[in-house]
């Protein structure tokens, strides 16, 4: 079986969400993370929002500051071994995981 993951920006946003969550818990600012990653605060902001891609070096740098393993920053698989928040479809023998175009935020879910 071939597996393809599409919508890379969605993956970057999920990583950014996880990094931001850990930063918030530890009361770390974007200004604190920037030098560790070799970028400025605005570059950190873009990564956290999924606007610029996360590299392996970025993951290790952020993980070192946050005191976690780089793998802890990656999206988790659900009980069906699919990335959480993704939809699955079969296309000519390949399993494709795709993020919905719009993911609801916890605030939007509360309002619904």
Give a structural overview.
Strands 1-3-2 form a 3-stranded mixed beta sheet, with no helix packed on it. The longest helix has 19 residues, at 8-26. It is of the alpha+beta class and 112 residues long. A hairpin with a 2-residue loop joins β2 and β3 (94-98). It has helices at 8-26, 30-37, 41-48, 56-66, 106-111, and strands spanning 2-5, 87-91, 94-98. Mean pLDDT is 76; it is low at 1-9 and 99-103. The protein is built from 5 helices and 3 strands. The protein has a single domain (2-111), classed as 434 Repressor (Amino-terminal Domain), CATH 1.10.260. α2 (30-37) packs across α3.
SS elements, strand count: 3
Query: How many domain modules?
Result: 1
Lateral arrangement of strands in the main beta sheet: 1-3-2
Count of separate DSSP helical elements: 5
CATH architecture annotation name: Orthogonal Bundle
Radius of gyration: 15 Å
Mean pLDDT: 76
Can you tell me the CATH topology? 434 Repressor (Amino-terminal Domain)
Task: Characterize the overall form.
Answer: globular
Taking the sheet with the most strands, its summary is: 3 strands, mixed
The CATH superfamily is: lambda repressor-like DNA-binding domains
Question: Outline of this structure?
Answer:
With about 110 residues, the chain is α+β, with helices and mostly antiparallel strands. It has helices at about 10-25, 30-35, 40-50, 55-65, 105-110; strands at about 1-5, 85-90, 95-100. The chain is globular.
């Amino acid at each position: 079986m071939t597996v393809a993951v599409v919508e890379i920006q969605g993956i970057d946003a999920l990583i950014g969400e996880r990094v931001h969550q850990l930063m918030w818990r530890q009361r770390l600012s974007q200004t604190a993370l920037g030098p560790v990653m070799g970028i400025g605060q605005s570059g950190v902001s873009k990564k956290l929002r999924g606007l610029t891609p996360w590299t392996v070096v970025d993951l290790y740098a952020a993980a070192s500051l946050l005191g976690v393993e780089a793998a802890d920053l990656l999206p988790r698989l659900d009980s069906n071994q699919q990335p959480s928040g993704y939809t699955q479809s079969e296309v000519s023998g390949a399993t494709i995981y795709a993020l919905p175009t719009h993911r609801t935020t916890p605030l939007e879910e509360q309002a619904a």
